Fold this protein.
Amino acid sequence: MPTACESCSHPLAAGELVCRNCGALVYHRELNQLAGEAMRLEAANPAAAAMVWRRMLDLLPPDSAQYQQIYQRLGALAAGWSPAASGAAEGQQAPRPVRPPDPLGVALMKTVGSMLASIVLYYFVYFRSWPLAIAFVVLMLIHEMGHVLAMRYYGLSASPPIFIPFIGALINLRQAPPNALVEAVVGIGGPLLGTIGAVACYLVSIRMTGQLELALKYASFLGLFLNLFNLLPVPPLDGGRVTAAISPWLWIVGLVGLGLLLVQDLWASGGGIGVFILLMILFYALPRVRMTLRARGTHHPYYQISRRASWTMAALYIGLTVFLSGFMYWTGALGKVFLKS
């Protein structure tokens, strides 16, 4: 470590990263060299570039703007961003500028409008039951709000929940998570709150009678199924985000499961919206899986989280999967009654 600031010659204490006299970064020359090296590596070897960016974090104070910019860049690289893919020029400071959140009124209009459109279409195309259509869409909203709460907790910018009829709902994360643990917490927030909503829907149905009881029970069954499906360990599904904090190698299991579901759907129906959704998931999954596993997954700084955090996410993931499977098995036969009535 330098003993005096190169800018003002003021003596430096051991471990200082910023000069107390002039405010200059102690390692500014080394930081500039590392930044140049990382930018040259990004297009050809994103994993190696990330390792260089990670070395720079040790030379910067955590509360500095430079530290936060590099932290975001590491998250963007881990999520699949590259200068070649985005057309970014060398020396560009931020790979993914963070968009400000929508005004509350605009966000509500987008969410409520897409919800109403979905309810109407689900009623006329599938359910022919207003209580079922409404309950199903509300359960999807509860699932998405689980993601929203986690994103707000970490201060991540995202779009409001948007409902796409016959596909589901989505939130566009406008800011890359800083590490796999944050991504996992955001990922499991949806299935966790969604499961609570589906169970609550079932408990409410017990106190109802007639078609309303059957509608709520079937909506609960659908909610449980959708939350369980979302826990399939392959990105961009929630399970893929959660298992990023456990081991990205679990994505191989998810890809196998996705392939089996695709074959089963093709065998049963020969095509349709289910096959389209599975193919779309596969299309988005393969680039990230290939890039991450090629870089040997957990060796990437993005995936270097504490063992305790990794085991905690594993316990939550397994526990939620087991609970969903058991509760769905218990209520599945009740849900089928509605289809026969």
Remarks:
- The longest strand covers residues 162-164.
